[in-house]
Design a protein that fits this description.
With 391 residues, this protein is mainly beta. The protein is 6% helix and 50% strand. The chain is built from one helix and 32 strands. A hairpin with a 5-residue loop joins β24 (290-295) and β25. The longest helix is centred in the first third of the chain and has 22 residues, at 2-23. 47% of the residues are buried.
Length: 391
């Protein structure tokens, strides 16, 4: 009897083990994919703009079908992104105003903020911008009583994405007023508590410079740093500035139309205590006609879009001292460049979107399956990638 009981218990134990094994045959369930999206600022015609949302497969880098909503009438400027919640776009004509869009944190869909659009400061044309610490900063050209000046306009961002022109002192001048200035305003970059703005824009042969400010995280006000503006070391019109917080800190600015005809990328190291800029060894670095700059998430590789010859991607390795070493590039793809995890996206000549797998060790780019993908719009003005919080 006892032997039968033991035999019965052994059978039950074996059955239990078998049931557990069957239930865990596939191992731990994989975490759900993180929702990631590529947003495209598109232009259909001279009278019609749109914003497109394309889902990103983070495993393969492939882009899904685009979903479009109406966007600002051209000419719009670049996206400004406030974390993963809001997108902002400045429209120059017929009235300078900022359009705001909320991002659905579950689906990635965008919809206009009810109080949008928001008017810009009077007598100011806005360019692209950046958002940080619940404030939106946008480069611009302001028509002042004593001349025209490149400026930075500041807006506070409400919890619902509403913009308020309540920042004291805004717009802040990035250079003294002049009677001879063109362009739509300086490009901006933010690193920690410092904001940098290209000092000149659109003036062929004028000295390039970088205006630097400290930001008040509570009020949004900007205060010029000691030594600002910092010279770029070569004449030329700055067209884009970008900061490297992961590898440096370093700052890079593209300069075009210099008197000697050689376009360059100037590099600087950033003093984290003062925000001051110091040229990196070998700066400036010669390059073709620069249209845009991008850094990979690790800050170890710099990508420049050129149009001479072009469109092409020129790549550099960012050395430990901030100097740049040329690497093989990619032809037929131009800016804007956007990173999402280990994938990079650019604009192909047909206004389609080229996707690449990015090798974090070597910096090499390999086309993802199915690339290029339809952009869903005849003209791509700008792109930005967003990864939403895990569900």
């Amino acid at each position: 009897m006892r032997s039968q009981t033991l035999a019965s218990l052994l059978v039950l134990v074996c059955l239990s083990i078998a049931i557990v094994a069957c239930g865990s045959a596939g191992g731990p369930s994989a975490p759900p994919p993180v929702p990631s999206f590529l947003y495209v600022l598109g232009q259909i015609s001279t009278q019609e703009g749109q914003i497109l949302t394309l889902p990103i497969d983070q495993n393969t880098g492939a882009l899904g079908a685009a979903v479009a909503v109406p966007g600002p009438m051209p000419p719009p400027t670049a996206f400004a992104l406030d974390e993963t919640k809001f997108l902002y776009i400045a429209q120059l004509l017929p009235l300078t105003q900022i359009f705001g869009y909320g991002i659905d944190q579950r689906t990635g869909a965008v919809s206009a903020i009810p109080s949008s659009p928001f008017l810009s400061p009077s007598n100011t044309l806005l360019n692209g911008g950046t958002a940080v610490n619940n404030f939106l900063y946008m480069g611009g050209t302001s028509f002042l009583t004593n001349g025209v000046a490149p400026t930075v306009s500041a807006f506070s961002i409400g919890t619902d994405g509403t913009l308020s022109s309540t920042v004291s002192g805004s717009p802040f001048t990035a250079a003294p007023p002049t009677n001879n200035l063109s362009g739509t305003g300086p490009a901006l970059a933010v690193l920690s508590r410092y904001l940098y703005a290209t000092e000149f824009e659109g003036q062929i042969g004028q000295p390039g410079g970088i205006a630097a400010f400290s930001t008040n995280t509570g009020t949004g006000t900007l205060t010029p740093l000691s030594g600002s503006p910092f010279p770029t070391g070569v004449d030329g019109s700055p067209v884009q500035v970008i900061c490297d917080s992961a590898h440096g800190p370093f700052l890079y600015v593209a300069l075009v139309n210099p008197p000697g005809g050689q376009n360059v990328v100037a590099g600087f190291s950033i003093d984290q205590n003062t925000g001051a800029l110091t040229p990196v060894p070998g700066s400036p670095f010669p390059i073709g006609g620069v249209l845009g700059l991008a850094l990979d998430p690790s800050g170890q590789f710099l990508f420049a879009g050129i149009n001479v010859p072009g469109p092409n991607i020129v790549e550099f390795k960012v050395e430990s001292d901030g100097s740049l070493t040329p690497l093989p590039g990619v032809s037929g793809v131009g800016p804007p460049f956007v990173f999402s995890a280990n994938h990079m996206y650019g604009v192909a000549s047909s206004s389609s979107i080229a996707g690449f797998d990015f090798d974090t060790a070597t910096g090499s780019l390999t086309p993802v399956p199915g690339s290029p993908f339809s952009a869903g719009t005849p003209i791509v003005r700008d792109m930005v990638a967003v990864t939403l919080p895990s569900p």
